[in-house]
């Protein structure tokens, strides 16, 4: 089951960034720019999770959240509120209005993605795979264990996130810049060569004592997890 996420946000660059990252992780994404439009849309179809901006034209995120909690169809809809810095005093109000979680802008995209996964795993366990598999690789998101051919491997936190990200979309080529944005976050300043260093460490960890390398370097483009490789 593909998890469906609706983004209600009037800042289009942010919507584009979120859509890109959610789609890269395999979510189906819909976007709405206004609060009143979102309310109409949510009467027709209820997603698995709602990313809701605080300040919106039409109806505010807070008011929309309150209204959604009054309807049976959306009473239990997982909602993550996006708030701007300076609205911190309003956070509590946000949660008491019925949001399940909130993030303060500017936020780290990998951090938000992790919260979305965690929330979906609780609320819609059927939509989020607890175990990712590709070839003879197996990654368990609950225990953070990684195995290859049944043998457990020990990865650093960055290598783990990198592998998890690649395993979500086997075969897809990601540029170093995309990997930086999705695994490290845009707000963290690191050189693109950092990606090469961590891919090198990941390879070393998963390929120890093996001849096949599941990570493919695509010259001039980036990296992909090869779905074709046979273990
Ligand atoms: Ca806004």
Would you write up a description of this structure?
The protein has 231 residues and is α/β, with parallel strands linked by helices. It folds into two domains: 124 residues, Rossmann fold (3-Layer(aba) Sandwich); 95 residues, Winged helix-like DNA-binding domain superfamily/Winged helix DNA-binding domain (Arc Repressor Mutant, subunit A). It is built from eight helices and eleven strands. The strands form three sheets. A five-stranded parallel β-sheet has the order 2-1-3-4-5. The chain has a four-stranded antiparallel β-sheet with strand order 6-7-8-9, covered by helices on one side. The chain has a two-stranded antiparallel ribbon with strand order 10-11. Strand 4, helix 4 and strand 5 form a beta-alpha-beta unit. Helix 6 crosses helix 7 and helix 6 crosses helix 8. The two termini are 27 Å apart. The model has no long low-confidence stretch (mean pLDDT 89). Bound molecules: calcium ion (CA).
């Amino acid at each position: 089951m593909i998890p469906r996420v609706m983004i209600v946000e009037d800042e289009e660059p942010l919507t584009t960034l979120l859509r890109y990252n959610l789609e890269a992780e395999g979510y189906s994404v819909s976007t709405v720019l206004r609060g009143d439009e979102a309310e109409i849309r949510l009467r027709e179809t209820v997603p698995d999770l709602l990313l809701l901006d605080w300040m919106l034209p039409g109806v505010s995120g807070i008011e929309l959240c309150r209204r959604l909690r009054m309807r049976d169809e959306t009473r239990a809809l997982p909602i993550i509120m996006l708030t701007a810095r300076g609205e911190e005093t309003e956070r509590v109000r946000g949660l008491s209005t019925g949001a399940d979680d909130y993030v303060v802008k500017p936020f780290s995209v990998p951090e938000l993605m992790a919260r979305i996964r965690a929330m979906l795993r609780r609320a819609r366990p059927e939509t989020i795979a607890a175990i990712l598999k590709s070839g003879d690789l197996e990654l368990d998101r609950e225990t953070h264990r990684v195995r290859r051919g049944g043998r457990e491997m020990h990865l650093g936190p960055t290598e783990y996130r990198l592998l998890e990200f690649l395993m979500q979309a086997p075969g897809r080529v990601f540029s170093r810049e995309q990997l930086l944005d999705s695994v490290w976050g845009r707000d963290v300043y690191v050189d693109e060569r950092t990606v090469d260093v961590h891919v090198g460490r990941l390879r070393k960890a998963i390929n120890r004592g093996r001849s096949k390398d599941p990570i493919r370097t695509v010259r001039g483009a980036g990296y992909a997890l090869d779905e074709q490789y046979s273990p």
